[in-house]
């Protein structure tokens, strides 16, 4: 009797196709990798394409920490129309001639949405309000408010501005933009708020995530490519790329795996999760500094 091959531990960087939910991609990967233990770090809306980080087997323990890292996007913002969902998936709720909006006004609007800002997420989003998903409340026709949350937009750059005419004949402006931001930032909310600030409304018509933390499109594979050949970034490589690295000797490695809290070098104080490796280069744990000691947040060794 042949034993079932063990699925590899590691990350898979997927170039998500448009029209797929993040859960759809996870379901597809469970079939490709032949394991139920697959998760993702940071949801991408169905309309969006690009980098979606999946974890297989023990690498699922990394995902919650990876989800908190910086992200980068390339997108198109349409000024002159609002939609129900703040993107092209929702029905248009208002149209306003945007042809007189100047580049200076656009730049001033973007400056207000750059840096540490308070953002109200889109109502049609997965955020829970009193335990119920926001999109469900919106679809049920409820009147509700989502509290603003602090997010950081490190950069918000306009690469091109194009005059266009919407299907209903409204003159609109399409902005090709790139955004680098913290976890939890909604790019469609940036489009909505930019349009609101300019008095013409706005929504997102295209979005491609180009980076999650250290993982970019250059490392991403399409589902078709992964079906042909499953390309997995080994657990140690994945953690080494995403977190500060702490190499320990054999004695410390043994103590750590036995649950002893090691004294943590000063250089890692306040660094967030740190990846600990043994002398053979195996990932033992993710730890955080707590009162000078290493507190394990995920154990692999």
From TrEMBL:
GO molecular function: tRNA pseudouridine(55) synthase activity
Active site: 45
This protein's UniProt keywords: Isomerase, tRNA processing
Keyword tRNA processing part of the UniProt annotation: yes
Domain (Pseudouridine synthase II N-terminal): residue spans on this chain: 31-187
EC number: 5.4.99.25
Domain of life: Bacteria
Domain tRNA pseudouridylate synthase B C-terminal positions: 188-230
Enzyme class: isomerase
Catalytic activity annotation: uridine(55) in tRNA = pseudouridine(55) in tRNA
The keyword Chloroplast appears for this protein: no
Job description of the protein: Responsible for synthesis of pseudouridine from uracil-55 in the psi GC loop of transfer RNAs.
NCBIfam families assigned to the protein according to its UniProt record, in alphabetical order: TruB (TIGR00431)
Family: Belongs to the pseudouridine synthase TruB family. Type 1 subfamily.
Name of this chain's protein: tRNA pseudouridine synthase B
Organism whose genome encodes this protein: Streptomyces tropicalis
